[in-house]
Amino acid sequence: MRYIKEYSRPLIILLVFEIVAVTLWLTKNNLFYLFNFSYIGLSISLGLFLFIRKYKHARRIVQLLVGLYMLVYLGLINRENMQIEGFWYYLFTGVFEAATIHYAVAKIFGPLIFGRGWCGYACWTAMVLDFLPYKVPSAPRKNLGWIRYITFAASFLFVSALFLAKVGNIERIMFWAFIIGNIVYYTVGIMLAFMFWDNRAFCKYICPITIFLKPMSYFSLIRVKCNTDLCVSCGKCKRVCPMDVDVTDNSRKRKNGTECILCMECVRNCPKGAL
Ligand code: SF4
Ligand code: SF4
Ligand code: SF4
User: Fold this and answer.
1) What separation in angstroms does the CA of 51 have from each of 41, 242, 248?
2) Residue 123 Cα to ligand 1 middle (Å)
3) How far is the CA of 54 from the centre of ligand 1 (A)?
4) Is 244 in the pocket of ligand 3 (CB under 6 A)?
């Protein structure tokens, strides 16, 4: 009984993903959904289990399991463009498949429940950036968040132009857009990390997906909260946060609150167990 209680969260996550997997499998009559969501659910549950067991690299394991699956299996082998261009593409064609389901679950409606968990545990861009040396930003945050609106608009205009110009074989273009887009993301992300001494600079200033993620995660059900009775205001939690979140402020309007990627570094490092 004690074990069931202790490990209830990974079990619940697994159950939720299995419900999604079976529902999509049966409604779409496509076995892929059963495999896809079962795999992701199992990976996340394993990570949560390892986190409860206090394994230091639990988050990174999930990030690699899910990120590599998305990048290599779905993107390169199955030729699905899961980047934002792929989302616009499937949206314009009116097909509720692949990238549209992925965006709806992970990046648009899911963040109402798990905030920016995608950014902490699944994104294949951050999966690589998190290997770089600046895990905690070593320089103050820059006022460059406006760039994300430009990249968001550029992705929308790019796909719109393909449709308006009635370009043939868009699917093939989408595959190459995925390859080139990822090379650009990794190159820019790595350059920015070294320029700003911050692994997550790309996430903070450039990533177009944050246009969906930030407003939705404002309402997130799952949040890190501070027990002010236990907190001794040592500031350690803020020093280890990769996203500059003012985590001791419990209000939804806390500074950089919509940046939290639920990495749990603050929780692991709080000397008083206040988070
Ligand atoms: S902000 Fe963008 S690049 Fe960064 S982790 Fe989230 S989705 Fe990935
Ligand atoms: S690390 Fe813990 S005790 Fe220190 S400021 Fe943060 S919440 Fe409070
Ligand atoms: S360290 Fe805490 S506040 Fe900062 S991103 Fe990770 S979970 Fe969120």
Assistant:
1) 15, 18, 22
2) 6
3) 25
4) no
Give yes or no for residue 119 CB within 6 A of ligand 3: no
The secondary structure of residue 104, as a DSSP letter, is I
Tell how far the Cα of 105 is from the centroid of ligand 1, in angstroms: 15
**Which pTM value belongs to this model?**
0.90
Question: How is the chain split into domains, by residue range?
Answer: 56-217, 224-275
CATH placement of domain 224-275: 3.30.70
Burial 184-206 (b: 16+ CB within 10 A, else e): ebeebbbebbeebebbbbbbbbb
Mean pLDDT (whole number) for 84-95: 86
Confidence (pLDDT) at 43: 93
Q: Binning pLDDT at 50, 70 and 90, where does residue 1 land? A: low
* Ligand 1: centre distance to CA 206 (Å): 9
pLDDT for res 206: 95
- pLDDT tens sequence across 33-63: 899 889 999 999 999 899 888 888 999 999 9
Residue nearest to ligand 3 atom 5, measured at CA: 260
pLDDT at 252: 94
| Residue of minimum CA distance from atom 8 in ligand 2 | 231
